[in-house]
Amino acid sequence: MSLSEANQDYLKAIYKLRAHGTVTTQALADRLKVAPPSATAMIKKLAALQLVTHTPYYGVQLTQTGEKIALEIIRHHRLVETYLTEVLGLGWDQAHIEAERWEHILSEEVEARMDAALGSPTRDPHGAAIPTLNGEIAVDDWTRLSEVSGGENLIVRRVSDENAELLGHLREIGLVPGAHVAVQRAVGAEGTLHLEIEGQAHVFGIAPARFVYVETLDETL
Amino acid sequence: MSLSEANQDYLKAIYKLRAHGTVTTQALADRLKVAPPSATAMIKKLAALQLVTHTPYYGVQLTQTGEKIALEIIRHHRLVETYLTEVLGLGWDQAHIEAERWEHILSEEVEARMDAALGSPTRDPHGAAIPTLNGEIAVDDWTRLSEVSGGENLIVRRVSDENAELLGHLREIGLVPGAHVAVQRAVGAEGTLHLEIEGQAHVFGIAPARFVYVETLDETL
DNA sequence: CATTGAATTTAGTTGCGGCTAATTTCTTTT
DNA sequence: AAAAGAAATTAGCCGCAACTAAATTCAATG
Question: FRET pair for B154, CA 20 to 30 Å: which of A4, A111, B165, B198?
Fold first, then answer.
């Protein structure tokens, strides 16, 4: 029994939205750019397959099986993304778009070959953890750049890959995993962040800063 | 306007069946393993898109546009097949199965990267010509091994890749592009072919021999 | 506590690409 | 030339995954 692409997309979306346990129909519909009734219908199908539990008018939650499948898809996505950038030299944003399609058709065999060719990477190019074959995934406790109150010693650890356009911009200004950042002036009334990226001064919107995760070395000292 | 996978599959099938100009509904249905009415319905859609011309109760034929698209898909298929075997080390049969899925989702960008990584190959691992970006394809005038009346100096040029199981077997016994073959005794009553592959004697069924193309060096002398 | 409003679900439709059963058309045979 | 048989098409249906419009349910507010 194999799942349709739509099924897989929903599971992945639920996984990514599961921050506080339960995912609303609306959030799901928004993320997948479908109308709410479409999400309701799919939720019922996934519930029938025991991949999610659904409490009507409340929300949906992945079962163990559902989460495992979601992690498989995310593993595919991130491995492909890594492969496309590292081996075929695609840009970040391009790689993300491609991976959205590839993740559904990747066989175990090719997955294994790509994994081997890359030396079993644990992070994709944006710094996101790649789940293992067994469905384990590293938990990061990094801070969103938008929530840093100020500090000199930050290292970019991850840039969320949901938005291709944003992704391209971030790469351009050097906001990539490993980059050193210092916040000079925190969020002001205008919603801007004054920061220094590898020595270069930048003014940065608060919105995109929500998708950049940093490790705050100050605190760990 | 982009074509669905089903559309693409039909165009490819029509291209491969177009040997004598026109393709019957039945042949198409058989090849795609669908019922004849399904083929009829799709033919109508493709005709409406001006990708084929349809003469009811007679057959279907690709238009120039249709053929060009078919060749694009075949290019994708053969490039991917080559990439999977040469770069990722997959077996022939496995690569073919994968390529059936990949051909539909390959972007121009990745196509170009794979092509470059392989040095713009003109043949896939089975010896089939890879169409160019412009939709040109080499025409081969090789002979089917099943139609060779006898001869000492044959070189395998191509092994048709339609059947994964057969493909695996052919590779095992060394019947691969470049192999030297000599036919010792042509098709007998039992429908067998006695031949020598790189010095090794083999008895070979007539059926699989239809999918092996050889260059007859005897004649060219 | 009743009402309002937003989120969710139900009801009913659509397009796609399959299917079976029935009909039509062409070809071949008598 | 008529009849039989095979191939193709039409008619009508199904599952999937989307949609809009209408109902329902929950929560929040007066």
Answer: B165
With a 7 Å cutoff on the CB, does A33 touch strand D?
Answer: yes
Query: Does any CB of chain B come closer than 8 Å to the CB of residue A110?
Result: yes
CA-based nearest residue to A198, from A162, A144, A155: A155
Residue B136 lies in a domain: no
- Out of B46, B62, B78, a domain closes at B62
The CATH number of the domain holding residue A18 is 1.10.10.10
For testing contact with chain B, the best of A109, A113, A114, A115 (most B CBs within 10 A): A109
For residue A169, which amino acid is it? H
The pLDDT score that the predictor gives to residue A190 is 67
- Interchain CB contact of B164 with A (< 8 Å): no
Tell me how many domains chain B contains: 2
Quickly tell me which residue has 């930050």 as its tokens: A154
For A39, the domain range is 5-62
Using the 8-state DSSP alphabet, how is residue A23 labeled? B
Positions in chain C where some atom is under 7 Å from a protein CB = 7-12, 16-22, 25-26
Q: What is the CA radius of gyration of chain A?
A: 19
- Whether the predicted pLDDT of A149 surpasses 80: no
β-pairing, B59-62 with B143-144?
unpaired
β-bridge mates for residue A129, sequence order: A123
Question: In whole angstroms, what is the distance from residue B16 CA to residue B63 CA?
Answer: 14
Residue A197: closest CA among A219, A170, A166, A167: A170
- Nucleotide D10: closest residue by CA–C1': B37
Each residue's pLDDT tens digit in chain B (221 positions)? 789 999 999 999 999 999 878 999 999 999 999 999 999 999 999 999 999 999 999 999 999 999 999 999 999 999 999 999 999 999 888 899 999 999 999 999 999 999 999 999 999 999 999 999 999 999 998 988 888 877 778 899 999 877 777 888 888 888 889 999 988 766 666 678 888 888 888 888 888 888 899 998 765 54
The pLDDT value given to residue B138? 95
